[in-house]
Amino acid sequence: MNRTRGRNLANKAGDGPRTTVILPVFNAAGHLSRAAESVMKQSDDDLELIIVDDCSTDGSLAVARAVQATYSPDRITVIALAVNGGVSRARNAGLDAARGDWVSFIDSDDEYLPNYLETLFEAASSDPEVDVVVGGRIVVQNSGAEQAKSSRSLGIFDGPEACRLAMLAELTPFPWDKLIRRRLFDDVRFAEGAARFEDMTSNILLNSIARKVRSIDTPVYRYYIMDNSLTWGRIPTVSDTTLALDHLDKHLNPRFRQGRYGAAYACMRVLIMMLIAQSAIARGNGSPAAWQTISDCRRDIPLSMILSTIRVHRVIGLGAALLKFSPHLYAFLYRRHIRSSYGVG
C-alpha cells in the first residue's frame, strides 16, 4: 500500500510509524513466527511490531529475538517482562512503548491476513472522526475447516451507541480484530490480573470514549481454535470475572449503566455469566467442578436481569432463562452447538 494514501490517518508527529502492532506472548514458541511474519508481511508496511514476552519457559523469547534479527530493531521491539503478569500486563507494556498514532493487536497463535491494515485503514478513511474500526475474521477449527464471521452490527456508529452495541454483543469483544487510535489509550488500559473478559470490558471502555466506530464484515484476521487456550482449555469460575468487571465499573462513565443504557449493561452482565457457564460446559465433561461453576452462574443471573435483557436482546435473554431454569438442557444444546460450529466439545 502506498504510504501517501490516507494522509489524514498518518502519524502526526512524523517521527514514527503509522501503526503499532502489539503481540503478547506466553509459551507460544510453536506459533510465534507465523503470527509475527503475518504482521511484517502486511501490504501496508508503515508499522512497528512490539513483541512482549511474559516470562515464557518454552523458548518463545529466543524465537522473538530471531524474528527481530530477520528484520530490524527499528521495526520490531522485543520486551521481556521480568515477572509473569498475564496478557493484560503484556498488552499494557506494549501500549507504554507504542509510537504509532494507531494501535492493533494480534494473539501469538493467530495471524493477520495480508491486507489487515490496508483494509482497516481504508474503512477508517471514510470519516475523519472514526477512532475504531472493527473487521471480520476467519475462524479455523481443529479440523482445518474455515468459517467467516463478523460483528452482527455493521456500519458507522457514534461512540455511545457503539458502547451500547458492544454491551449487547452486537460488536465483537476481541482486541485483535480492531484498529484503534492510540490516544484513546490515554484513558484506557487492560485490567491487569484479570483472568477473563479484560478484552470485552476494555473494548466497551474504548467505544464509550470514541467519536465514531466503524464495523465492517471483510475478514482481516485468521483465528485458530486451540484446545489449550484460556477460552477452551480450562474450567473457569465466577471469580474469574471479578477484576475485569470491577475495572469496568471503576472507569465507565455512570451514564452507561443507567437510562437507555441500563438494560444493555444488564445484558452484558448476563452474557458474561452465560459465557462462564459455557466454558465450564465445554471443558467440564459433567464434572462436579463444572457443575459448581454452572450453579454459581445461575445464582448470579437474577430474574430481574433476565427480564431486562429480554427487552433489548431476546436471544441472550431467553438463553439466560434456559440456563437458569433448565441447565441440563442448556448444556446439551451448547455442546451440540460447539461441536458443529468449532469442532470442539
Domain unit count? 2
CATH class of the largest domain: Alpha Beta
Structural classification = alpha/beta
Shape: globular
Q: Which blocks of ≥5 consecutive residues have pLDDT under 50?
A: 1-8
Output the helix-strand order: EHEHEHEEHEEEHEHEHHHHHH
Explain how this protein is built:
By secondary structure, the protein is α/β, with parallel strands linked by helices. It contains 12 helices and 10 strands. The protein folds into 2 domains: 218 residues, Spore Coat Polysaccharide Biosynthesis Protein SpsA, Chain A (Alpha-Beta Complex), CATH 3.90.550.10; 105 residues, no CATH class. It is 42% helix and 18% strand. Strands 1, 2, 3, 4, 5, 6, 7, 8, 9 and 10 form a 10-stranded mixed β-sheet that branches. Helix 11 crosses helix 12. The radius of gyration is 20 Å and the shape is globular.
Give the SSE layout:
Blueprint: E1 19-25, H1 32-40, E2 47-53, H2 60-70, E3 76-80, H3 87-97, E4 102-105, E5 111-112, H4 116-124, E6 130-140, E7 146-149, E8 155-158, H5 159-167, E9 178-181, H6 198-209, E10 212-224, H7 242-251, H8 262-284, H9 288-299, H10 303-312, H11 314-325, H12 327-342
Parallel strand pairs: 1-2, 1-4, 2-3, 6-10
Antiparallel strand pairs: 4-9, 5-10, 6-7, 6-9, 8-10
Helix pairs in contact: 1-2, 5-6, 5-8, 6-7, 8-9, 8-10, 8-11, 9-11, 10-11, 11-12
